[in-house]
Write a structure and sequence with these properties.
The protein is an alpha/beta fold. Helices cover about 40% and strands about 15% of the residues. The structure holds pyridoxal-5'-phosphate (PLP).
């Protein structure tokens, strides 16, 4: 870093970092341009796009990934939390390989899905019974549709800043593709406001769905008092409370519901529960879930060609029963908390308005001071977020434009120390450009 670079304003520094990124990644750029002929923007998953073009990642091993131009990174994105086990965990790989020998598509119940379901029910206090599906989006769609069918009510309460999947986007601007449910939208962590809205709309509300920590929204933890208020108010009115633990279920191995001692009526899961294979799950109280029992004349239909795909069942079950014990989960949470403490100390030692929020092994960096309790509190300069991501990539840390950092099991202490060192370098180099 030259003195001249240090004296730039943040927008100029960001453009300069972008120019260096373009120069270093010609293959990724070419691949995206070629892909754009057949996929809109060369993209098939919006969150993976960032300007001027995203890196194409061609290989992963343990906690490392390599891009198409041969650069190596420590993977702190961890596939937005689905990459808990890292790349190519030997036990998961062996489980998948063993299943490959027996064939892939059975068109019948297999011997593993009930074992995976039993492990999920054992871990999550709210799950009397569970059903498996293919994504977090699908899990939420099915849980909310079930709540509507069971209650005979139509509306769903959500919170500003929430992300519950491709058709449940409640961040800035929402999405015209959202599911056509009538939504009542509350403010996250506003217990009093939420209780009032629930009382007001009780006659129409089928469900209240909440992330116990808003993940995509910036790793904003739900306050225990807020979540307990949701529990009390929904119970009072017979409204189904759904905890979307698609991201937070890794915490403690039994999700934030276990840590908080709050039991929702339904829980949705996804990400790592399939051991790195496409997966989702939804479940809850027996009275609700038993409506899916096909032996009943009034059974709800729940289809899905790949709901019990043998590779997902094998990888997911191996992950939960042979790798991610509750002890391993507690240790990963401890490492995540320790990382946040170190990063926050590095920022405050330098008097910079930078903070890291999150729970357990999931964190997001924000370029601002003051409490962050809901999306309205977020005011990081987008240029700072861009510069941070590009500077980290240039120093061998793979992380997304939203500045989220997720730990994975194969990460070593040296990997975490490496991130802290890169973070401190960023603060030293770019600190003068950031608001203090
Ligand atoms: C809290 C939450 N719910 C649901 C989803 C959707 O999961 P999927 O991408 O598997 O559809 C996500 C994905 O990031 C999520 O973070």
């Amino acid at each position: 870093m030259t003195d001249a670079a240090r004296n730039l304003d943040i927008a100029t520094a960001s453009r300069e970092a972008e120019a260096a990124y373009v120069a270093a990644n010609p293959t990724s750029q070419r691949l995206m341009e070629e892909a754009a002929a057949v996929m809109p923007g060369g993209n098939t998953r919006t969150v993976l796009y960032y300007p001027p073009f995203p890196l194409t990642i061609v290989r992963g091993e343990g906690a490392r990934v390599w891009d198409a131009d041969g650069h190596e990174y420590c993977d702190f994105l961890g596939e937005f939390t689905a990459g808990l086990y890292g790349h190519s965990h030997p036990l998961i790989r062996a489980a998948i390989e063993a299943k490959l020998d027996d064939g892939l598509l059975m068109g019948a119940p297999g011997e593993l899905e009930a074992k995976l379901a039993a492990e999920l029910c054992r871990r999550f206090p709210s799950l009397d019974r569970v059903r498996l599906c293919n994504s977090g989006t699908e899990a939420n769609m099915l849980a909310l549709s079930a709540a509507r069918a069971v209650s005979g009510r139509e509306a769903i309460m959500v919170f500003e800043g929430a992300y519950h999947g491709a058709v449940f986007v409640f961040g800035p601007g929402g999405s015209p593709l959202n599911a056509p449910f009538p939504f009542v939208i509350g403010r996250y962590n506003d217990a009093e406001g939420a209780a009032k809205l629930i009382d007001e709309h009780a006659a129409d509300l089928a469900a209240v769905i909440v992330e116990p920590m808003q993940g995509a929204g910036g790793c904003i933890p739900g306050e225990p008092d807020f979540l307990q208020t949701l529990r009390d108010a929904t119970e009072r009115h017979g409204i189904v409370l759904v905890f979307d633990e698609v991201m937070t279920s890794r915490t403690g191995g039994g999700g934030l519901q276990t840590e908080l001692g709050i039991v929702p009526d339904m829980t949705t899961l996804g990400k790592y529960v399939g051991g790195g294979m496409p997966s989702g799950a939804f479940g809850g109280r027996a009275e609700i879930m038993d409506r899916f029992d096909p032996r009943r004349p009034d059974a709800f239909m729940h289809a899905g060609t790949f709901n019990n795909h043998v590779l997902t069942m094998a990888a997911g079950l191996t992950g939960l029963t042979e790798i991610y014990s509750t002890g391993a989960a507690a240790e990963l949470d401890r490492r995540g908390q320790d990382l946040r403490r170190r990063l926050n100390a590095a920022a405050s030692d330098r008097g910079l308005a930078v903070q890291v929020t999150g729970v357990g092994s999931l964190s997001t960096v924000h370029f601002q001071s003051g409490p962050i309790r809901c999306i309205e509190d977020l005011c990081s300069d987008p240029e700072a977020r861009t510069l941070f991501q590009l500077d980290l990539l240039a120093r061998g840390i793979y992380s997304p434009r939203r500045n989220m950092m997720n730990l994975s099991l194969p990460m070593s202490e040296a990997d975490i120390d490496g991130l802290v060192a890169v973070f401190e370098e960023f603060l030293d180099d770019r600190g003068p450009l950031l608001a203090s």
